[in-house]
Amino acid sequence: MSQDARFEDASEAPLRLVAFDDEDLQVISALVQDSVLQGADIQWRPRERRLAFLLNRLRHEDVAAARAAGRPVERVRTVLTIEGAQHVASQGFDRDDTDTVLSVLSIAFEPGDLPAGDVIVTLAGDGAIRARVEAIEVALRDVTRPYLAPSGHVPDHGVDL
């Protein structure tokens, strides 16, 4: 009998996931919540129709195990790509300030003429990035080994996970 992956099954193995529908995108959104990046870590490639982010992702899939073992939480460098992007817009931050530190809150899909719509990356501080897409195709790929989170703690959003 096959079974969905569980957070408890986490290891240091890199994650490689692709979302093709809203349900898949919710999984990726949960995994990239609390990721941090700088403006320079965002690349819009209109000819390739790709919007890419290099994130310092909090390893949510390992937080419970880290707490149970009394060890610090970890982050990992992750590439997040939004494929088939036809147009990209942003608000709430200066795209020319490449040193600005941004924090990802969520990723969501706002349907248009299906399967097209907008993938919206919501950032802390009322920032957002909107990518008009032909269809949902969002990929997450860890590209480094996990490392200790510099802050040593998990951000608190007032919700027990």
TrEMBL record:
Superkingdom in the source lineage: Bacteria
Matching InterPro entries: DUF2948 (IPR021335)
Pfam families: DUF2948
Protein name as it appears in the record: DUF2948 domain-containing protein
Organism: Citreimonas salinaria
